[in-house]
Amino acid sequence: MVITRFAPSPNGPLHLGHGFSAILAHDLAQARGGRFLLRIEDIDGPRSRAELAEEFRADLAWLGLAWDEVPAQSTRLASYAAAAEKLRAMGLLYPCRCTRAQIAAAASGTDPDGAPLYPGTCRDVAMDGGGPVAWRLDMARALAMAGPLEWVDALAGPQRARPELFGDVVLVRKDLPASYHLAATLDDAADGVTLVTRGRDLFASTHVHRLLQALLGLPVPRWHHHALLLDESGQKLAKRRGSGEALLGLARRRLAGEDGAALAAALRAGIFPAGISAG
Ligand code: GLU
């Protein structure tokens, strides 16, 4: 049974790229008699807007998709805490109080997301005093424990996992109960997802997710990292750049009276409106 999912964060309206992604996940499941899940990834407290989840459901229904909704991330905090505790007991997490500015000043190089690579400042330091801490994965230890790992992308083929590209990645944020990597990996396992479909911008993250699966004894799905939609100037659509607003936004198009089924058919056929292309 193929189980795919669409896992939007309610921190801004969806854009055409999200529509493309959701349709792909839906169709890959449907073609093989599987299930397509919707999971609202709403643990980024200050940035999450509850009303957007309802808007997302309306957008997906407008595109003609049917889905099973699984519990939102905000209801799963205990499972994140339990996994962090397990990794801590394995000696694989350490607390870190460094600020972004301190890390940027001491870092040499960047991770695949372009963030400064953590220089390991707190790795072997006994932490005292109070205040919020982030919990980081001791990557060298984790790699030694897990050994070499592989994962398979439906388009790019077999991959050697290279989580070391992210260094001692944060698994529990100072301000949040889990990082994206930990929460998404645990949820995909809990939801029985067998084919993780998402944009190519998250391709490198999968190296970390594969390592977490090995460390936590989770099942290993397959992945399908799809092309990203690009705007007229060749830049990828992104919520952060306001792509969900106005012309490229699903809700805006829906509320303007556009035929959602016709838009979905066009996206499936690779015919993109508004000067968009797939890169
Ligand atoms: N919640 C993430 C986002 O909105 C998606 C994560 C994923 O598909 O793994 O970008």
Per-chain topology:
Blueprint: E1 3-6, H1 16-31, E2 35-38, H2 50-62, E3 68-69, H3 77-89, E4 93-96, H4 100-106, E5 134-137, H5 139-146, E6 150-153, E7 157-160, E8 170-172, H6 180-190, E9 195-199, H7 205-216, E10 222-226, E11 229-230, H8 250-255, H9 260-268, E12 277-278
Parallel strand pairs: 1-2, 2-3, 9-10
Antiparallel strand pairs: 4-5, 5-8, 6-7, 11-12
Helix pairs in contact: 6-7
Notes on the structure:
This protein is of the alpha/beta class. The chain has two domains: 125 residues, 3-Layer(aba) Sandwich (Rossmann fold), CATH 3.40.50; 105 residues, HUPs (Rossmann fold), CATH 3.40.50.620. 34% of the residues lie in helices and 15% in strands. The protein is built from nine helices and twelve strands. The strands form five sheets. The chain has a three-stranded parallel beta sheet with strand order 1-2-3. It has a three-stranded antiparallel beta sheet with strand order 4-5-8. Strands 6-7 form a two-stranded antiparallel ribbon. It is globular. The protein binds glutamic acid (GLU). The site of glutamic acid has 7 residues, from loops.
Rg over CA atoms = 19 Å
How confident overall, as mean pLDDT?
95
Strand order of the largest sheet: 1-2-3
Domain tally: 2
Q: What is the class of the largest domain in the CATH system?
A: Alpha Beta
Briefly note the CATH topology name of the largest domain.
Answer: Rossmann fold
The CATH architecture of the largest domain can be given as: 3-Layer(aba) Sandwich
Helix content: 25-40%
Our measurement of the CA-to-CA distance between the termini, rounded to an integer number of angstroms, reads: 30 Å
Order of helices and strands: EHEHEHEHEHEEEHEHEEHHE
Q: How can the largest sheet be summarized?
A: 3 strands, parallel
Low-pLDDT regions: none
Q: What class would the helix/strand composition place it in?
A: alpha/beta
CATH superfamily of the largest domain: HUPs
Shape: globular
Q: Tell me what portion of residues adopts beta-strand conformation.
A: 15-25%
Number of helical stretches of at least 4 residues: 9
Molecules bound to protein: glutamic acid
Count of distinct strands: 12
